[in-house]
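chain below, 615 aa
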Amino acid sequence: MCSQLMMVNYIKLKKKTMALQTITDLFIGDLPIPTFKSVFLDQQISAHHVLKIVCRMDALEDLSASLGEQSKNFLGETIALEIQSMEGFGSYKTLQFKGVVTQVETIKGHEAAQGDEIVITAQSPSFLAEDGFHYASYNETTLSDIIYDVFRGYDTSQLTIDIRPQNDIPIDYSVQHHESSYNYARRLASQYGEWFYYDGVNLVFGQPDSEEVALTYGIDLKEYRLSLMPQSQKYKIFTNDYLTDQVQEKSTADVAVGLNGLNDFVADKSDQIFTQETQLLHATFNDAQVQSRLDKQVEKQRKAIAVNQVKITGTSENPGVKLGSLINVDDVTYRIIKVVHTNNDTGDYENHFEGVTSEDNTYPLTNINNFPKSETQTAIVKDNADPEGLGRVKVQFHWQKALGEQTPWIRIVTPHAGGDKGFHFIPEVGEEVLIGFEGGNAEHPYVMGSLYNGTGKAEAFMSGTNDIKVIRTRSGHTIALNDKEDSEFINITDKKGNLITINTAHESITITALKDVTVNAGENMSLNAKNMKINVQENMDVSVGKNKTESIKQDLEISTKNSIEQVFNNKETTVSKKTSQVSGELIVQANKGKMLIDSKGKLTIQSSDTIDYGD
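prediction:
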């Protein structure tokens, strides 16, 4: 995360003629190793420790037997090492290391400069958790519970875990993705700023040891140097909070580091050297605490930068210098992050160490963006009833099935989205989907789209020429578009068979309803056609609220069994030419007032029978 501009070293050095005389006890299983040529032990935080022991072959083997016949049985055995000072240095603590033999090398040759040798290599028991790549996930689970679950299957007689996180809050969603158990724990420590190291006996996750050893220059401190290394520390770290549709941010300049002495001095120099603020994206889980969580993560990152700007390295003869513990040099306290121990057959011991300030318990390897990486994966939808109304789903990756786990609510890529608008198609529970990850972060999945599979085929829509494009819902509501040449059509149908067909080939539209069709218009409705047919099998009602006008340019023909016409006020019929009316019987009656028959020409009243003019 940080760039380093320069390094200034302050060195104190004193040569001594003799190293500290020590007593070394070494066991492989129950077998004591009586003699050795050299011991080399490399210990670092967030790493497996490596112990190399070189022995004469005759100390461990029957030289008349096959090469390595006995020492090969050391593989996988527990190895125990203790180095303590001779009498007179009773205040020095004892170096203790327990490991597992991982390699045995036999060297034989009469011309070998050192003679026949056996080199035994052991690693810290944390190596047992490098047993391959694993997949797991945790929802709303604390760090301590995650670490306990990750390591619970290992042999506690060889690997014991001391779990004591400094900040043991629930993590919304954490993924072990193609990582060994050890690498997952190591990444979690970096991601959440928790100490992680093997102290020689226990694998520690969280609060480091408070044990302190005083080193005195010229007595048990042969040399030491202070390295001042200004690093860029001006960052504005931001995250996208999609729940509020806002960008949340936090600047490292707003963090009070609280370090004194050289660390404070180098921090000031860094601000003078690196004047530009850099923006950095940090993808965090979206919920109501996103800003609070971002603030805490940025604080950890800023402090990690600060503690790494001043380091002490040195050479000591005190075997009590222990990884993760404290040393005091010139009344300043440092925490050991690396130490290499060496010893030989005469008991001459020394160590080379590296440390950072202990003013703050910040983990120097903190990297809040140390998230797991993933390529696209497929998953099965497990829930789609998003309580927040954001169109999200919960999915289960195939590796989660055996664990009974699933993701939290994750978003779906859609062609268009917005407030009460967009392309709203949510995959159904049980369907297979393709999952992508924001920035490749396996802890931030999203749905890219849905997939057909062997139990969910598209057989009804298949054609050799790919003519059919279809949208169909779970119940069977369907929009089908057929592109077959000279037979093109669009069908919109529901699950019962109500249908609208746009027949492109026949240039027609057909609406078919199993029962009713209702057309409503708030204002006007126009029907325009060359010809029109209305076929009503039973009854037809026409109701007009005000006026009705019909204009027929040629003929009007009405055929009916009975006809009843009621006019509540006046009726006027105008015929420009001739009116003919034929009926079996005709009654013309005026119930009120007079009747007028007026003709411009001759009026003829004709009857086959008599004419009755009434009384």
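Residues 230-307 form one domain. The longest strand covers residues 95-107.
thats it, cya
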